[in-house]
């Protein structure tokens, strides 16, 4: 009787684990779908040029951005401006936020490329774990400081430039697609 109960318990635990794994897969897929729907909604809700820029300046920034991304720019979902300049709520002193959106798989590749295998407990490991948790690789860790400086000089304002995982916590509208 005890053996039968233990066997039933083991089967139930295995079934619960399988169900949880299936739910996680569905949730990840749904998160990506929601992210794309939110992107589409955000894109249609705002203008085509970020607040405080001319169309010409935005186009030139897009050209410079794509030319300077290097390996980070391979296999991107899209390049966008997000935040207050996309929403039209920026102050004159506000920065401009460029988001390089990549798939979750590409994000993982970039994490491995940019961070390698940091020493356990090191600042680099903590930074890597934070990037994974937030779905955002900051400009320095992405190796894009020089590009940020060029964009700041060209646009005359501070620039935030990050690699963003599609469906991650920082993948939020409104968005304005950077011109090609």
Automatic annotation (TrEMBL):
<feature type="domain" description="Polymerase nucleotidyl transferase">
    <location>
        <begin position="80"/>
        <end position="160"/>
    </location>
</feature>
<keyword id="KW-0808">Transferase</keyword>
<protein>
    <submittedName>
        <fullName>Nucleotidyltransferase-like protein</fullName>
    </submittedName>
</protein>
<dbReference type="InterPro" id="IPR002934">
    <property type="entry name" value="Polymerase_NTP_transf_dom"/>
</dbReference>
<dbReference type="InterPro" id="IPR043519">
    <property type="entry name" value="NT_sf"/>
</dbReference>
<dbReference type="Pfam" id="PF01909">
    <property type="entry name" value="NTP_transf_2"/>
</dbReference>
<dbReference type="GO" id="GO:0016779">
    <property type="term" value="F:nucleotidyltransferase activity"/>
</dbReference>
